[in-house]
Amino acid sequence: MRKLHLFFALSLGLFFVILGLSGGVLVFRAELQQAALPQVKLSVLELDNDAQLLPGPDQLFARLKTEFPDARLRSLKLPQRLMDPYLMTVSYQEQGKTRLEQFLVDPLGGKVGRQADFTSPSEAWIYELHSSLFLATPGTFLVGAIGTGLLVLLLLGLGIWGQGLVAAGPEQAKAWLMMSGRARGKGRLALLHRVLGFYFSPLLLLLVASGVLLVFREDILAPFETTRHELHHSETAGENAGHHQSTTEDISTKNCVGVPDIEDYLYQAEQVFPTGVATFIRFPRSKEQPVNVTLRQPGEVPSPLGLSRVLLEMNCGTVVGQQNGLALDWSQTLIERTVALHNGSYWGPAGRLLYAFAGFLPLFFMVTGVLFWRRRKNQTGREVTKIAQS
């Protein structure tokens, strides 16, 4: 078992370090992306006086259309914080061709900037390294294969620890669970490797296993996924986060007054889930398809935009389907929890900090493991020399 553990450690140790360090940084991926966005500075006094006068998404899109008159709104990501920009994805004509591009729109003055000008190169670089080792699709599968090997490495390490504990017996069990103040030098590092490896192995197993599941999602998780198209055929809106009963028929039978604008769609969606906050809206290619509004409700599995969705008829804004993020079926919950467990968001800010620390553990285990291995190798060499001399 020790030889197998050594083989996997020497073969995959460097990859473990690379994936660990890059993953530890990506725990703060949202903050890295946020830091690259243009920020609007507004004094507290101005905010108190003008908060109700800030332009809404319809006015801001009208501002964008002054620069791109034929622009058609395809999706809108709402600000996560009060003064963050709106992210609008629009299609427009340029030199006879239809282009699809993302724009950041200042929520105060309507200033328009291309999203491509406000990306975080460091975040993109680290993500590519972590997800594919810069090898695109083949690299993604390579990362999955490495992750599978790392699972074996971690399990072998636990097996070696268990063998040592059994061999030590009850009297020496404490030495396998706690640090000894008498250990010095390389011996102390070896002891740290053993003790910390035991206590942090569940966390490392969780991180590696969830990563492998995400890489091989199509083969492992996809068979359990509920098709998203079922949402279009919903006839009733179930119990929402506030335990209010609301049906699609109740909302959709309201009179259609004029053509709804962006805020009308958002308002209708938030009536279905009163405790939810709209985060994203997607517009269809044709008027026969529904407008899709994404919301985040308190208590949902953490995700970038939320898991609740409302579908609205495009011409009237009436509700034609919904998905309650608090009442997902088990397959959807499995997938969303796997994502949240891997990126650290499942445990909140404290969990993300713990994950960031865990990103440095592979480096620690590689260094201490090499030192431990060399120490044992030197001891073995000395013993062989003594035997030969005798």
Automatic annotation (TrEMBL):
InterPro entries for the chain: PepSY-ass_TM
Record's keyword terms, sorted: Membrane, Transmembrane, Transmembrane helix
Coiled-coil ranges from the UniProt annotation: none
Superkingdom of origin: Bacteria
Record keyword DNA repair present: no
Pfam families attached to this UniProt entry: PepSY_TM
Keyword field contains Transmembrane: yes
Sequence segments annotated as region (Disordered): 231-250
Entry's transmembrane regions: 141-168, 189-216, 353-373
Name recorded for this polypeptide: PepSY-associated TM helix domain-containing protein
